[in-house]
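Notes from hallway chat w/ T.B., transcribed later so I don't forget. T.B. wanted the structure written out for a chain they're using in a teaching module, and asked if we could keep both sequence and C-alpha cells in one place. Agreed to drop them here.
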Amino acid sequence: MSNQGGLASIYTTLGESMKLTSTLLIALGFLTLANVAQAAVLTTVEWESKPGTVWTYSGTVVDCAVPPSPSGGCALKFTYPAGTYSTSFSAGRAEYIVPGDPTEVYIGAWMRYSNPFTFHPNGHKINLFYLGGISTCRNIAFGYSGNTFAGIPQICWGPGTKNYFQNLGSWNHLVHLNEWHWYEMRVKANTPGVSDGIIQVWIDNALYLSYSNIPFRAAGDTVGFRYIQHSGEWGGGGGTIPQTGYWWVDHTVISTTKIGMPGGAPAGDSTPPAPPLGVR
C-alpha cells in the first residue's frame, strides 16, 4: 500500500511538472509570436522631439501648439512661405535610414494641412521612398498631382517618370484642411526585369490608390529601399503661394507589414457585417 501511495505521489508530481512545462512552452510561443509581430515595425516616432542617429532633418520644427492628432502630443511642422517661385522648393525633410534594405516597406502617419493651404498644381510631394544601389536618384514619390493623389516612380526625375493617379474611390484633400487624417503608403519592389511592383495608398484605412504593374528595377537589379522621407516638396516647377501654409505630421510608423490607422478598424477590413439571419 505504501509503495502504491509513493507511486501516486510521484505521478502527481510528474503531472504537475508536465503542466508547468506546457504552460511555459505556450507562454514562450506567445512571446515568440509577439516578437515576430513587433519586429515588422522598424520605427515609431511621436514627434515630441526629433530623434537622431537614423533620422536626419532640414527645415522642420517640432510644434506642440497645433491641435493634437488622435495620437496626441506634438507634431513635426513643415512651412511653405508665401511668395512667387521660379522653381520647385523644399519646405523641409525628415529622412530615415531603413535597416536591411527591405524590398517591401510601409509608412503611415497622421497628416494635417493648414487652412488656407496652396497645393502645387503639378507636383506636391509628401513621402519619398529611395532605392539603394549606385544611383542616388531612383525614388518613388507620393503626393498630389493635378489636384488628385498620385504615386510617381522617378528615375533621375526624367526617364521612367510616370504618374499613377488615384484609381479607387474619391478623396478631395481640399475639403479636409485643418483636419487630421491617417495616410499610409506601401511600396513593394518588382521582380527584377518584370513589371510587377506594387504601390498603394490608404487614407483613414480606405484604399484609394493601388497598382501592381510598376517597373522599379531592371533585370539583375536586386537592391531594396534604403531611405524614406517625409518630404515637403512644392513643385514640379515654380508658382505662387499667396499665403504661408503649414503641413504637420504625427505618429510616424515605418514597417515591413501593413500598419493600419491607430484606433481604427482592422487594417484593410472595410466589409460591413452581414445582416442577422431571419431579419427582414
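Follow-up for T.B.: The two ends are 70 Å apart (CA to CA). Might be a good example for the class.
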